[in-house]
Amino acid sequence: HDFNNLMTAIAGNLSLAKEGTQPGGRYLEAAERALRRSKDLTRQLLTFAKGGQPRKETVELSPLIQESCSFALQGSNVQSDLQLAQELWPASVDAGQIGQVISNLVINAAQAMPQGGKVRIVATNLTVDRDAPSLLEPGRYVELSFEDHGQGIDADDRKRIFDPYFTTKPGGNGLGLATAYSIVRRHGGDITVESELGKGTTFRVYLPASDAPVEPRQAPVELDPPSGAGRVLVMDDEAMIRELARAIVDRLGYEAVLAVDGDDAVERFKNAWEAGDPFDAVVLDLTVPGGTGGKEAVSRMRAIQPDLRAIVSSGYSDDPVLADYREHGFDGAVAKPYTVKEFGSALHHLLDDRVG
Length: 356
Prior knowledge:
The chain has 356 residues and is α/β, with parallel strands linked by helices. The protein has 11 helices and 12 strands. It has helices at residues 2-19, 25-50, 61-73, 95-111, 155-160, 176-186, 239-251, 262-274, 294-304, 320-323, 340-355, and strands at 57-59, 78-84, 91-93, 117-128, 139-148, 190-196, 200-208, 231-235, 255-259, 281-285, 310-314, 332-335. The protein has a 5-stranded mixed β-sheet with strand order 2-4-5-7-6. A hairpin with a 3-residue loop joins strand 6 (190-196) and strand 7 (200-208). Helix 2 (25-50) crosses helix 6 (176-186), helix 3 crosses helix 4 and helix 4 runs antiparallel to helix 6.
């Protein structure tokens, strides 16, 4: 149901943009917003269904909380009351996944107050002692609480609140809290719920703090078409993805050669190597249903050319291979769905680094 609504928004706005009777920019922007929401929904489904390892980095949580909260409450009649500790400890987290947790919990709080109100979000430092009555291991944590003033949740429903597809909300899909629980537990943290009927609900999230220095955010890379000629081998089992990749690679000034699966890619790679005209880079889809995927293909390619330049691509954005791509024979990674800038940035970084 949710996807059908999003696809309707995308299709409708694109058709309006194609009419050409008025400037189509605002329709394209609306379609892009719907696409971003569909990407978020896809991540929820894939994170819950397949799991996967977080791609962790040391992060300042306050800006992430502010940004995720602002996005989640955009257009709603609910306001936020942020109370974030001044010296909040950083945490080693997957910023995208934890941002998803924060958004899900804020949206859940807003939905509990259909007449409007405030969701109170508190972030504090917490030290768990060895003798503390807690499921958490002893150590330092950041505690995030999300408090609403809705109708509350009865005791029976609280027991099932993190179960997949369980929901008490009309039109709800029961994935938001299940996904949040799954993500937090994979980070070595915990999530709890307290509620009183007629007074409201508070969710608490505990994330392990980090002693490592905060990693600076990378500024977006301005992509200029690389100078010179070269060829990039792109393997994907979906024809429309292959054609999209061809258009992006061509736009960057390179020539794309397409392969339908791992066996096809290895054969084309081997033939080019033996002909003395090796590929400058390869982009390999990780999963090919019923066929050879990127992980096996890159291993066979490296047996031919050890200094191969390889990027792994996958629709499973939380797949362990994407999180630790170097451990699996790749030099870079790009998650689907991707934009021209995201795909181009991965390819540009790879080729630029190798040249340097």
